[in-house]
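re the bet — no i am not wrong, look at it urself. input seq straight from the record:
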Amino acid sequence: MRIVFIGTGDIGVPTLHALLKSEHEVVGVVTQPDKPVGRSQSIESPPIKEALPGTKIPVLQPARIKDQQAIDEIRALKPDVLVVMAYGQILPRGVLEIPKTACLNLHASLLPRWRGATPIQAAIAAGDRETGITVMCMDEGLDTGDILLQRTIDILPGDTGGSLHERLAQIAPEALLQSLEMLAKGIARRTPQDNASATYAPKLKREDGRIDWSESAEVIERRIRAFDPWPGAFTTISINGTHNLKIFSAAVVDLRGKPGEILRKQNELIVAAGKGALSLGEVQLEGKRRMSAPNFLRGHTLIARVAG
């Protein structure tokens, strides 16, 4: 089948590579425009575009996919199927109606749980035991289309947003290729989602990573893992002024104190939560390098509390 792949984030790169090696013909790729990145504001291409060196596949980078010019350019590629994964823009009806066979979306959750922009972080933060990849037929709603196929994996106790992202990226190609095979054979079964069971994972902002120490230690620990690497979990600490302290890992310990109180025990940096406490693992003071909490303690004199 003639495939147009629409995606931006690196979670879609293994799936794009699998399509390029398959019997299907990738006739075009749509991704976001190149953008300035970092302090130097150097122009960088999206990971999906970077995954196509040495190919002659047309790459479209419209600022807005809903613009008529973008719709016309995609239609001119005459796709049988559009495959969408982590694109970052909502596809309008004009695009959804282009493919002859289907417009498929690969979503990193077990829909209808965690519709929306940040399903990986939401699943870890909520304490879910499993997640997966859902292949669905797109409609104009937010991740509301009929389900073709799902692949499930366990969420491991030490999973971070980054590690779970990588494992989901690796199971997505097989899920898509099987879905395409079912479509080609005419045996694909569409299962409507149970909207009453839907949950949502909205787009995160950096401020969402601020720790609320009135929450339980277990909840905070999950959020620390979920928000690594983005948006990052942090708290405010006073060391010669007020600074943000980014927290990469922590372990729940059976100690008590007032929420936000620092309970220094030998060379451990322990912070009390609403229930229980957390022994911090790796931390990073803004503008400084990442280090273990014991090393951090050796170099700083702390006040008695942190601020959530």
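see?? The two ends are 53 Å apart (CA to CA). told u. also Residues 2-201 form a domain with the Rossmann fold fold (CATH 3.40.50.170). so pay up
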